[in-house]
Amino acid sequence: MGYVEIGPKIKEVFDHRQMKLTDFADELGTVRQNVYRIFRKRHLDTGLLLRISQVLNHDFFQYYSNEPAQTDKNGNHSSETEYQRQLELSRKEIDYLRRIIKLMEEKSVLIR
Predict the structure, then answer these.
(1) Contact 87, 53 (CB under 8 A)
(2) Domain limits at 42?
(3) Within-domain flag for 39
(4) How many CA atoms lie within 13 A of 78 on its CB side?
(5) 1 within some domain
(6) Domain of life, per the record (predicted)?
(7) Extended strands (E) in 1-112
(8) Could you tell me the CATH number of the domain that includes residue 103?
(9) Each residue of 71-81: pLDDT tens digit?
(10) What is the C-alpha to C-alpha distance for residues 28 and 48, in angstroms, rounded to an integer?
């Protein structure tokens, strides 16, 4: 697989989704100017790329895979549901970890 410039791929999917730039920026927790920078980036932090994948409901990590992307008759990636399942599991894990952190913070207050 060749070199991937992820910013233009994100822009392409963003344009296809016909989402407002301001809404996209808000969902990412950033400002419009940073979104324009993202569209020009060659590389992105995986955490940010995961968040963008969630917001745009698109697996951008597939562009880094050596496996060819398979599409169904509608042009959707056949593994898209698997990625959605993985994203949902990741969200649940993050929620679980946040609860653990909160409990640990509460215990630390009691110990003091």
Answers:
(1) yes
(2) 6-111
(3) yes
(4) 7
(5) no
(6) Bacteria
(7) none
(8) 1.10.260.40
(9) 555 555 556 67
(10) 8
